[in-house]
Structure formats: C-alpha cells, structure tokens
Amino acid sequence: MTPHALQGTDPDTVEGALRDRDPLPGTGGFAGTLPDGRVVRDALGRYPVFTERGDPTNAGSDPTELDEPVGLPAGHVRSADGDERVWTLPNPEPYADGATAVAALREAIERSAGAVPGAGLAVAFSGGVDSALVAARCPDAPLYVAGFPDSPDVRAARETARLLGRVDDLQVVTLDGAAVREHAATIARATGRTNPMDIAIAIPLVAVAGRARGDGCTRLAVGQGADELFGGYDKVARAPDDPRVEADSVRGAARELVGGLPDQLERDVLALRAAGVEPAAPLLHDRVVRVALGLPGRLLVNGRGERKVALRRAARAWLPDRVAFRGKRAAQYGSRTARELDRLAREAGYERSAGGHVARFVADLAGDVPAVGAP
C-alpha cells in the first residue's frame, strides 16, 4: 500500500463517517491511510491493514512486506497517539414484521450484488444459497468450485448450476494431495497462520482463485459473511444452550459471531490476494449488514431449526426453492480439505496423539511463516 492509499472508498466518505461516528456509511468496507496520515479500518474489518511496529505512519495491506507487522483492529483509527475505536456496529430494534424485513433484505441484496462490476469477475460457487445468490446476481461471471472428486461441494455446485441453467459456466477445480500441500503453504506464508481450521477453509478459495486468475479473471465474488450475519451456524441455532457461545439468545449469538468476522476476513483477503485476485463480497455491503443486524431471532433460526430464514426467503426472488432451502456443510468439510490435511500430516509422520499435528505439518511445508503482531 502506497502512502495515503485507501482501499474500498474515498477519503471524503471516511472523513464523513468519522465525523458522524457512522459505522455503516454505505460502503463495502475500507482500510488504509487518510491524507492526514491516520490509518483506518472499517467497523466490520472487510479490508485488512497493518503498520510497522513502532511506526504507525508506515502502513501496508500485505503483512509480508513489513518487518514487524501489527494489524489494526476493525473499527479503529491508528495515529502517532495510539489506537482509538471510533466505530461500533449498531444494535437496532429488531423488525416487528417479517415480510417487511425480508423485503428490505431482498432490496439490499439486489442493489449490492447487482452493483458488482462484471469486468474480470468470477464467482466462487459451492452450490449453497450464499454463493448461488451471488451467482444469480452476477449472471455473466464464470463459476468455479474446488473440491476432491465427488465431494459434497462439487456435487452441490453441479446440481445448482443445472437448476440455474448455468452448467456451461461451471468450472470444477479438482483437488488432490499435491494441490492441498501447495495451497496450504501459500496460505500460511500469506497470512502467518498454520492452524488447521484456517488452512482448510482457505484452500478451496485459493484453488478457485488460482484457476480463475489463470483464466484471466482478476476479481472473485464470494458469499462470505452470510453464515455469521444470518444465523447459519449450529451453535447459533442452539443458543443459549450451546457452550460455544456466551449469548443468551439466537439473535445475541449471531451478533457474537459477527464479531469474529474481521479475523476471518483478514485470512480470506490475504489468501485470495496471494492467489492473484481481489475479493468482492456483496453480502457484506453496508446496506445488507444494516438489515441483517435488525433481524429478530425468528428470522435467523425458526422453531423448526431452519437456519438463515430471512436470507432463504429473500433468495426465492432469484433461486428455486431446492437451492434457496438447501443445507450445506462448511467449506472445509464439503470440499474434503480438512480430511486430506489430517491424512497428509499423519502420512508425513506427524502423530495426531502429539497434538497440533496438522499445524506443525503446515508450518514445515511453508518454511518461513511471518508473525503478525497484535496491537
């Protein structure tokens, strides 16, 4: 990142958001350096930014280009005086009427996904409602799925492409052990992470991004953020009885998971950039986030345990019910990358009983893994 560079929006928009303390000023996220030297990162952390330890004026979007990179937390401004939190996500009163909420969400998705520029765009497409929504609103972009042969994600992507009439647009990136090794090392070097969950989640993304980049695409549209915003996780559906969340309600649990998005998005953005593409996440645009934060618990998870209720209802405007209401496994399981990482680590002699066997395997694959410091 060059001095005074700002990604995602213009300095005037950020200055206005700072003046008004507006956490959702109508952007898809932003991070970088303002003309006065302050470094900023939006409230949801959709773009990562780092500074050199001890020198807050030396900022960059790639931690590997700094000697001692220190990440800026979401919603903060960094200056010579230190870090200050200036934006916190709103906690609005929930919608009283479900039909009004779904209509508002539908409009927000239509505007946000439909506004993604089509030049050089591809779609990461695993066949579930999130990526299918993005694909439906980006009808001219090719679709890419990565997974082991006959993995759940590959099967779902093929079926959904058929239901959408886009079989000819779908490219399947077949994974194997060699590809998993290569991508795991790339992700570790780009992000400074070796833990199995981060690596397994990012491998399908990096595989898709690499193929799309080879085909001439420079941007990858993704469905990231939908599970967190719309109640897609089992631990949210089970709140308050699931020990993995502290919240005492479904709505509170969803908001708790939204708080983890900045860390996840940092991983995804850095990994995709290492593969040569820039991500576009229309379901994380401010207008979509604003509606999502106002959804009542019953529109996240209903009494039958159905998750992402409002999102699925909104999706019916563009998707057949078989796609809109399909359940789907998480990417690391649907692509079977988590299983393969475990197998490769054990095959290489890293014993599961010793603990951390996959992380140690990945660290050795990557060699020099950068350390990204906490502020």
Task: Describe it.
The chain has about 375 residues and is an alpha/beta fold. It folds into two domains: about 80 residues, no CATH class; about 240 residues, Rossmann fold (3-Layer(aba) Sandwich), CATH 3.40.50.620. The protein contains 16 helices and 13 strands. Helix 2 runs antiparallel to helix 11, helix 2 crosses helix 12 and helix 6 crosses helix 10. It starts with 5 loop residues before the first strand and ends in a 9-residue tail after the last helix. The mean pLDDT is about 95.
* Silhouette: globular
Q: Which CATH class of the largest domain applies here? A: Alpha Beta
Oligomer: single chain
Q: Given the helix and strand composition, which structural class is it?
A: alpha/beta
Low-confidence stretches: none
* Number of helical stretches of at least 4 residues: 16
Distance between the termini: 19 Å
Question: Reading side by side through the largest sheet, how are the strands ordered?
Answer: 1-2-3-7-8
Mean of residue pLDDT values: 94
Write the CATH homologous superfamily of the largest domain. Answer: HUPs
What is the number of beta strands? 13
What is the strand content?
Answer: 5-15%
> What do we call the CATH topology of the largest domain?
Rossmann fold
What pattern of helices and strands is seen along the backbone? EHEEEEEEEHEHEHEHHEHHHHEHHHHHH
Count up the domains: 2
CATH architecture of the largest domain: 3-Layer(aba) Sandwich
Helical residues, percent: 40-55%
Sheet having the most strands: 5 strands, antiparallel
Rg to the nearest angstrom?
A: 20 Å
